[in-house]
Amino acid sequence: MGWRLDRFRRPDRVPGAAAHAAPAFKDLAGNKQIADGAIWAGIALLVVYFPITEGLWGRSLGKLLTGMVVVNAAGNPPGVGRAIIRTMTRLAEVNPFFVGGLPAAVFVALSKERQRLGDLMSGTYVIQSGELKRIKTLRTAASGKHFPT
After folding, report:
1. What is the pLDDT of residues 2-39, one digit of tens each?
2. How far is residue 126's CA from residue 59's CA, in Å, rounded to a whole number?
3. Mean pLDDT of the chain
4. What would the DSSP string read from start to end of the chain?
5. CA separation (Å) from 140 to 71, 125, 126, 136, 137?
6. How many structural domains is the chain composed of?
7. What domain range is 86 assigned to?
8. pLDDT digit string, tens, across residues 59-87
C-alpha cells in the first residue's frame, strides 16, 4: 500500500498531465516574489470582498449560509463606506496572530446591543434574516402604507 502513496508524492512519478505541471508548481513555490505576491493578493481580495458583499447586499457567503444579514439602523444594507469600516476593524478584532477572535468576543459580550467594535464604529448590526423581514413588516404596518399582494 505504501508504494502507491509514494508514487503520488513524487512529481516525477505522477501519472498523466499532472506529471508535467508538478515541476512548474514546485518552481513557483520556491519563488519568494510569487509567494509574497500571492499572500498580498489574498489579503487584497479579502479586504475588497467584505466591503462589496456586505456593503451592497448585506451578506457575505458565510452570512448567507447562516441566515445572517448586516444592516444599518434603517434596516438596509450598510453601504460600502460602512462596510469598509467593519472590515478594517475586523483585521484587528479577528486576527489569528492577535489572539484570534477574542477582542471581537469581548466587545460583543460587553456592548449593549451585542455588537463588535466594527459594528459600533460603523453603526451597523448583524441580525437574522427572518428578524429583518419581521422588522420591515412591522414598520410597513406602523406607517399605514399597505401594498397590494
Report:
1. 445 444 454 455 455 445 545 555 555 567 777 788 88
2. 10
3. 80
4. -HHHHHHHHSGGG--TTHHHHHHHHHHHHT-HHHHHHHHHHHHHHHHHHHHHIIIIIS--HHHHHHTEEEEETTSS---HHHHHHHHHHHHHHSBTTTTBTHHHHHHHHHSTT---HHHHHHTEEEEEHHHHHHHHHHHHHHHT-----
5. 17, 20, 21, 6, 5
6. 1
7. 15-143
8. 999 999 999 999 999 899 999 999 999 99
Q: Give the sign of the dihedral formed by CA 113, CA 115, CA 118, CA 122.
A: negative
Residue 3 maps to a domain: no
User: Residue 21 to residues 8, 17, 30, 36: CA-CA distances in angstroms?
Assistant: 13, 7, 15, 21
Whether 149 maps to a domain, the answer reads no
Q: In the chain, how long is the greatest CA-to-CA distance?
A: 75
- Nine-digit cell string for 54: 456586505
Q: For residue 138, give the C-alpha cell.
A: 412591522
The verdict on residue 2 lying in a domain is no
d(CA 133, CA 140): 11
In a domain, 9, yes or no: no
Side chain identity at residue 99, one-letter code: V
